[in-house]
Design a protein that fits this description.
It is a single chain. It contains 15 helices and seven strands. It is mainly alpha-helical. Strands 5-6-7 form a three-stranded antiparallel beta sheet. The longest helix has 29 residues.
């Protein structure tokens, strides 16, 4: 199947061996979107790589920016002002809503619902992308984070617009769940389909909702408490069976928790600087050393590993993309299922080929 197939979520190929309609072997084949992202990062200045990170997982540019900025800040020893920490959490959690909305909408498309749930999801997603555009100048390629803070300070009116969206979002989620969660086609096509054991998920290095759907309680926002997440009260939802239905429900439940975080951040955000006065972006030359910065992106752990030799360009630049790591267990989840189920299982993993291939 693929690489040009409507159900493969990008330019992706699966070599599938079948016995009738049952899958007996599956080999993922990727690399069609390889763009030398990491090698480019070793031949450009630190700041020049920031807009390139937008294009890894193009649904989650804000969180890609954040993970990269965190790595450079560790390397250079920059502090981040409190207002900027709140803004990063607001942008990161809005991005989680965007990502999970897309996942649910596309998953139902893979089930054959012909776009209606996807268009409901896109209607809400557009409202958040409008906010990103008003603030950063771009809906998706935001290039918003900077080392030591953020690029633009939002106006009070912009923050009020976020509050309005957050206030209305639970009503949309209730409506969405009424339409989808108890749907008999969803239950028949996802419960018990593509199960994943917690042991295999841990051994394969999986993270994010795919890992937590197996019941493993691991969320970097709780484990590392990076930024100021330790100030926020929120729950980490877990699954029981690790199947496709649990992966769907995890995204719904995480959106509800994200709304709690946003309400607290919007209530408590202080006035002040949005970038550290001593932070330097242009012509940055961090001292020799190495650093790994990671965050809980919407798809799982997104991290950047950097080595500095004291020059204006990283000596080494590596990305830990969640889509790539989560994709490695696709065969284990698909063996013994039908070819039609493989499409749904792939949709529930939530991959973006931009960061798989890099």
């Amino acid at each position: 199947m693929g690489p040009q197939h409507p159900s493969t979520h990008g330019v992706f190929r699966m070599n599938v061996a079948l016995d009738g309609e049952t899958i007996v072997k599956l080999q993922p084949v990727f690399g069609y979107l390889h763009r030398n992202h990491e090698k480019l990062g070793e031949n450009t200045g630190y700041l020049q790589s920031m807009p390139y990170t937008d294009r890894l997982d193009y649904l989650c540019a804000m969180t890609n920016n954040w993970a990269y900025a965190l790595s450079v800040e560790k390397l250079a020893g920059f502090e981040v002002p409190e207002r900027a920490e709140y803004l990063r959490i607001i942008m990161g959690e809005l991005t989680r809503l965007v990502n999970h909305l897309c996942l649910v909408g596309f998953l139902f498309n893979d089930l054959g619902t012909s776009f209606t749930p996807l268009l409901y999801a896109f209607r809400e997603r557009e409202k958040i992308l409008d906010l990103f555009e008003a603030l950063s100048g771009s809906r998706m390629m935001v290039n918003y984070q900077r080392f030591g803070g953020c690029r633009v300070d939002p106006t009070p009116e912009w923050l009020d617009a976020v509050r309005a969206i957050v206030d209305r979002f639970p009503r949309f989620l209730d409506e969405y769940e009424t339409m989808l969660t108890g749907n008999e086609i969803l239950l028949a096509r996802t419960q018990g389909v593509g199960p994943l054991s917690p042991e295999l998920a841990i051994n394969a290095g999986l993270t994010g909702p795919v890992l937590r759907a197996t019941g493993v309680d691991y969320d970097i926002r709780k484990v590392d408490r990076y930024g100021i997440y330790d100030r926020f009260d929120f729950r980490v939802p877990l699954g029981d069976h690790g199947d496709t239905y649990d992966r769907y429900m995890l995204r719904i439940l995480e959106m509800r928790e994200t709304l709690k975080i946003l309400q607290q951040a919007l209530r408590d955000i202080p006035a002040g600087d949005i970038i550290a006065p001593k932070a330097k972006s242009r012509g940055l030359r961090p001292p020799a050393g190495e650093a790994y910065g990671r965050i809980e992106g919407p798809k799982g752990e997104i991290g950047f590993y950097l080595i500095s030799d004291g020059s204006a360009q990283p000596y080494r630049y590596r990305v830990r993309p969640p889509s790539f790591v989560n994709l490695t267990v696709l065969e284990d989840m698909c063996i013994g299922t039908t070819i039609a189920d493989a499409v749904v299982i792939l949709g529930s993993i939530d991959i973006v080929l931009g960061e798989v291939d890099r």
